[in-house]
Specification:
The complex is a heterodimer of chains A (about 230) and B (about 350).
Chain A lengths: L15 H37 L8 H16 L2 H7 L1 H8 L4 H26 L4 H8 L4 H35 L7 H11 L3 H30 L8
Helix pairs in contact in A: 1-2, 1-5, 1-7, 1-8, 2-5, 4-5, 5-7, 6-7, 7-8, 7-9, 8-9
Chain B lengths: L1 E10 L9 E11 L3 E6 L6 H8 L7 E6 L2 E2 L5 H7 L3 E4 L11 H12 L3 H14 L15 H13 L5 E5 L7 H18 L2 E5 L3 H7 L2 E6 L2 E7 H6 L4 H6 L11 E7 L8 H8 L2 E13 L2 E12 L6 H10 L3 E6 L1 H7 L1
Helix pairs in contact in B: 3-4, 3-5, 4-5, 5-6
The chains are: A mainly alpha (about 230), B alpha/beta (about 350).
Chain lengths: ~230, ~350
């Protein structure tokens, strides 16, 4: 027996793609824009965090503490709470509180500190000698950061980008609740609010396949970057 | 050459108030061109802080580090970057960039300096040749053995044509064979490029086989320094004892002497010369003899037995000195008799 049959308006399977394809592209557009900012800003923040620490190129305890505190603050709120909390900021920046532009801002705000920590950790995992080698080889700060630190940490940073990208896709679904387009919006409005089970199932399948694919490609990419490391160590 | 003069290094104490921690307390050391000076000492003596100061990674609190007459210890920023190429640094376990080939690791300092690619190619090729790794140019560090990685590290340190090479525990963690080959490479480079090499190490084997001079630091101070031959030839030298340790058997003679030689020409047949000249027999209780530089250096303990009338001890010591041996009395007959 189907108790809510009256309300159920399952989209016919043959029609799913007319809703799914634009929403899917919308998700990627949103996540693409967000990742652009997250990787740039978060990467910068991560590099500065590492290099202001004791092991960095320009140690600066108070700046390091301030940045670290800021990053922790950005990471302490659940995304839904953060999204609601920064509505005034979002409105000030975009002039709206709903839709894709309104969703992109909190996603950047949530993603940037996350990525900053990932980059900082990747740099911290490097042997301490990497920076020292850069210095005794006569590198400038910029040369040491780009050609020694980031270059050596690249596999870990790429793994971080993959991790972050998956989080952002997840966040984009949550942002669907404030009317951001994309696959999350589809799931919330059709699947949840209209009890459209077909859409719900299709969304779940698309998301699972997408995440699996991203992780698979990401892992291959990291492995190919690490290929230089060869097989044996010691 | 590198001249280190009255080097002090303090670190602020962990607790906010209280005195600074003095790690280096006035180290003075000169390493002339084309020579290798080993800096030895127990861990915590200040060796690695000294290394960081020499490689200009740390600024000394006071004192100076002059390379070819120019004080580099006070520089910072752009000037430091420009001048630090006078000192090449080889780290422990040859810290190489793992994602770059041997070739790219060596080329890095040249690329950063802005050398044109054609010259880089030529120079890196020469460097690979001088460290004997022409065939490994395109191997990644993980595809090389420990000794080969250290060779790449040395080649990189030499890329900017420094006049001073600092090897900070460069052979630690290498097997004896690789250690020997790295040390002979350092000696070859010393002669080839006239390098002043500072070898910071805790391995006495390394000192014995590679150093021209030794400096011992302990608790942030220089305890003793001098040429290897000179230190070995002093019977009472602590470094000599560490370099050529002796474990003598029980003495059974009328006179026990500690002998050492190496700073003057030696009559290698001194035992026969002595026993032909005087009525005595020499029993070797312990000995360590090795070629150091061009000369034979040795430390030993001997017991002297007189077959007839005992010889005056002073005469014997003078005779030994004439043969090229420095001696110190450890036990005399009187002392032996007292013991009985």
């Amino acid at each position: 027996m189907k108790p809510v049959d009256v309300l159920s308006q399952d989209t016919p399977w043959s029609q799913i793609h007319t809703l799914m394809v634009p929403a899917y592209l919308q998700t990627w557009l949103m996540v693409g824009i967000v990742m652009l900012f997250v990787v740039t800003l978060g990467g910068l923040l991560g590099v500065v965090l590492f290099n202001t620490s004791k092991r960095g190129l320009f140690p600066h305890a108070s700046l390091n503490h301030a940045l670290s505190w800021l990053v922790n603050m950005g990471r302490s709120l659940p995304f839904l709470v953060l999204m609601a909390a920064i509505i005034p900021f979002t409105f000030w920046l975009t002039g709206t509180t709903i839709g894709t532009p309104a969703a992109v801002i909190p996603m950047i705000v949530a993603g940037t500190p996350f990525f900053a920590r990932l980059v900082e950790n990747a740099l911290r995992e490097l042997p301490a000698d990497v920076t020292a080698v850069g210095l005794v080889s006569g590198g400038s700060t910029w040369q040491i950061i780009t050609r020694a630190q980031i270059s050596e940490a690249l596999p870990a940073i790429v793994a971080g980008i993959v991790l972050n990208l998956i989080s952002m896709i997840e966040y984009s679904a949550i942002a669907g609740t404030i009317g951001a387009g994309g696959i999350g919006y589809l799931a919330v409005v059709y699947g949840y609010q209209r009890f459209d089970n077909h859409i719900m199932i299709a969304t779940i399948i698309v998301l699972i396949v997408t995440i699996q694919l991203i992780q698979f490609i990401g892992d291959r990419l990291v492995a190919s970057l690490q290929h230089a490391k060869g097989t044996h160590s010691s | 050459m590198i001249e280190i003069d009255n080097l002090h290094k303090h670190y602020p104490a962990p607790a906010a108030k209280g005195k600074n921690i003095e790690v280096l307390k006035g180290i003075s050391l000169t390493v002339p061109s084309a020579s290798i000076t080993a800096v030895v000492g127990p861990s915590g003596a200040g060796k690695s802080t000294l290394a960081k100061c020499i490689s200009l990674l740390e600024k000394p609190t006071s004192g100076s580090i002059r390379v070819n007459g120019k004080d580099l210890s006070r520089l910072s920023g752009e000037a430091l970057r420009r001048e630090r190429r006078a000192i090449g640094t080889v780290f422990q376990s040859s810290a190489l960039l793992q994602r770059k080939t041997a070739w790219d690791n060596i080329a890095l300092p040249l690329e950063w300096l802005g050398v044109v690619p054609r010259d880089i190619k030529k120079h890196v090729g020469q460097l690979l040749e001088s460290v004997g790794l022409e065939d490994k140019a395109h191997h990644f560090p993980s595809q090389l053995s420990g000794g080969q990685r250290q060779r790449v590290g040395i080649a990189r340190a030499l890329a900017l044509k420094p006049s001073v090479l600092l090897a900070d525990e460069a052979t630690s963690g290498l097997d004896p064979e690789s250690t020997a080959s790295i040390l002979s490479l350092l000696k070859q480079l010393r002669d080839q490029f006239g390098l002043a090499i500072v070898l910071i190490t805790h391995e006495m084997d390394v000192v014995r086989s590679a150093a021209d001079a030794v400096a011992e630091i302990r608790d942030g101070r220089l305890l003793q320094q001098g040429s290897l031959q000179h230190l070995l030839a002093q019977p009472e030298s602590r470094l000599g004892q560490q370099l050529f340790p002796l474990r003598p058997t029980e003495a059974d003679g009328e006179l026990v002497l500690q002998l050492s030689y190496g700073d003057r020409p030696l009559a290698t047949d001194w035992i026969s010369q002595l026993s032909q000249q005087y009525p005595l027999q020499v029993d070797v209780l312990a000995a360590h003899v090795e070629k150091v530089g061009e000369r034979l250096a040795g430390r030993m303990q001997v017991a002297v037995r007189f077959t007839q009338r005992p010889l005056d001890t002073q005469t014997l010591i003078q005779q030994l000195y004439r043969l090229g041996i420095n001696s110190e009395i450890i036990q005399t007959r009187a002392a032996l008799q007292e013991a009985v």
